[in-house]
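Subject: for your reference before the review

Hello V.,

The reviewers asked for a structural picture of the protein, and I figured it would be easier to keep everything in one thread rather than splitting it across files. Below is the amino acid sequence we used in the manuscript, unchanged from the supplementary table.
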Amino acid sequence: MTRARHQLIDLSATSYYHVINRCVRRSFLCGDDPYTKRNYDHRRQWLVDRIKLLSSIFSINIAAYAIMINHYHLVLQVDKFHADMLSMDEVIERWYCLYNGHPIVDDYLADREVSTVKLTKVEEYAQLWRERLYDISWFMKCLNEHISREANKEDNCTGKLYSLPSMALTLRAS
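And here is what came back from the structure prediction:
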């Protein structure tokens, strides 16, 4: 029986996790599609580039990866300690590399002289974003959504490209 991802991840036990993600609807991630006679090898670079970008933003390191024709494997190392050491401004800067953020945070960034109430809200948003910066689910969302959009644009279709990621606990001696 499957278990919820939050029950599988226990950073006190290990910081290493093996994630597998498969394409749906007979889609190809890379390689030659024998039915359409199209080659999708260029998508491999999409995935590599996005993984590199996300690992520079998130506090999640890529220990290993393998990209197959219809799925990929990642071994991720979650660096919660690094995320906890980021200043509030560093967290905001990283989050804004991916998302628009929030108007109250925009005011803070523009002026840095905001009211105590607004500063408290900025700190709350920054803490939420800090937690997301070491969250495997958020990492995978940012990875899969981007690749799915690019593939859908190329294939002139809509919908999911991937099934839900499966995860295996990867133990490693520290």
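For the response letter, the relevant points are probably these. The first helix runs from residue 5 to 8. The radius of gyration is 18 Å.

Happy to draft the paragraph if you're swamped.

O.
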